[in-house]
Amino acid sequence: MLWRRYASRSCCSSYQGSHFDLFAFGHFSVRVHLELRDGTLEEARQQGAQAVAVAHHADDQVETVLMHLLRGSGLEGLTGMKGSRVQKVWDENIPLVRPLLGVWREEIEAYCREHGLEPVEDASNRDVTFFRNRLRHELIPWLQTYNPRIKETLWRSAQVLAGEAEVIEQAVETAWMQVACEVGAGRVALDREAFLALPIGLQRRLVRRAMALLRPGLRDTGFEVVERGVRFIAEPSRSGRLHLAQGLRLVTRGDRVLLLEGDTSPFSGAEWPQLNEADPLVLNVPGALELENGWRLQATWSEAGSEVYGSAGRWEAYRDADTLVLPLLVRRARAGVRFQPLGLGGRSQKLSDFWINVRLPREMRAAWPLVYSGEEIAWVPGYRLDHRFRVREGSRRLLHLKFTRLPA
Asked: 264 by DSSP, 3-state: which?
């Protein structure tokens, strides 16, 4: 029904109408809905609107509750639509309000007749190929043969459950503060031990909340999806990974479980060196490079026989300078690249196989910085030197390479 023009006159506010020919789109799909929604919100921003009001009424609420019930929704779905809500997928500040949510359709029609208003109904509302319309024209009338006041009963139940949901949400908020270790771009980290100490109902709620944080537009998350996530956290697979839904995945890491979006790495910030540059970087000697994620690689000359050589850790390497092609290059791995890990007597190995042997997480491999001498890998930082560039008994001049993590 079109009631905005009358409401604007009654409230002494401005009116700006929009007309859409849905048949021009061929069908009313989710894509069409998003296009129309975004256009309306942009108009609201330009007008400086305090809210966007939609005309959902009590009958719509009953249909929504029934839809969620038939799809196996949890408590959140059975509470129906909210009277006022800021939905970040729409806008950070402008709330979506439903002022007619407590008014029945027949009451609105009676009001229109009393005030000489002529409502307009979308012809597609009678098309029973749409699920909601089948509920409206077929299921609800059938349910009314069992309970003539079934609509009022369902509407009242939604109100009661909404109140219960508020109480539960407070418990969820407390649990979230205990369990959520980190919330960042494309990632949510959960403390696994704290998570497993919670009742199963709160566990499910926290999985839903984590998913909603990364995908605000994700709707109707099914029970099976949430349950798979809860089971994985309780009993992770051998791979430590689970593709959950809609590009979201769970990854175990120590005492944490990470929910990641898309290609987000399970390792955050400067925890490990990562090379964001696709092109190779030149490392002069002496000289230094700073990686974007807070690591520094320094190259200096060193005398052979130095006592420091014996104390080199995993982020340090001494190379026979006379065997190297300078300047050195720091680059990502190329497909099929091989090197000769020190300790294998000069035998070569695919880097991809080496990663598997040392169990470097798959998400870290593509951007792991490698030090090249010409076209050959001279050092895999943090793991292994290359046999060809090792320090020999007769080595006279050494190159000292050192990765350090810069202070935050």
From this structure: coil
Torsion of CA 108, 111, 113, 116, to 10 degrees: -120
Domain match, 324 and 286 both = yes
Q: How confident is the model at residue 89 (pLDDT cuts 50, 70, 90)?
A: low
Global confidence as pTM? 0.59
129-142 per-position pLDDT tens digit:
999 999 999 999 99
The token pair that represents 6 in the structure block: 């009358």
Residue 338 to residues 119, 222, 335, 350, 379, Cα–Cα distance (Å): 74, 45, 9, 4, 12
Question: What is the residue whose two structure tokens read 């409206």?
Answer: 136
Whether residue 190 sits in one domain with residue 135: no
CA angle 271, 275, 281 (to 5 degrees): 140
For residue 269, is it within any domain? no
CATH code of the domain covering residue 27? 3.40.50.620
Instruction: Give the total number of structural domains in the chain.
Output: 3
Same-domain pairing of 11 and 127: yes
How many Å apart are CA 311 and CA 402, to the nearest integer? 12
Residues 6+ apart with CB under 8 A from 85: 95, 96
151 in the same domain as 62: yes
What DSSP line would sit under 185-199, residue for residue? TTEEEEEHHHHHTS-
- Nearest alpha carbon to residue 122 among 21, 50, 9: 21
- Going edge to edge, which strands form the sheet with 316-320? 287-290, 295-303, 397-405, 316-320
Cα separation, 77 vs 60, whole angstroms = 14
The residue segments making up the domain with residue 66 are: 4-158
Residue 274 lies in a domain: no
CA distance 30 to 22: 12
Strands 316-320 and 295-303: unpaired
Query: Is the preceding peptide bond at 119 cis, omega within 30 degrees of 0?
Result: no
Task: Return the CATH number at 254.
Answer: 3.30.465.60
Express each pLDDT in 3-52 by its tens digit: 444 455 555 456 566 666 655 555 555 555 656 666 677 777 888 888 88
Are 391 and 303 a contacting pair, CB within 8 Å? no
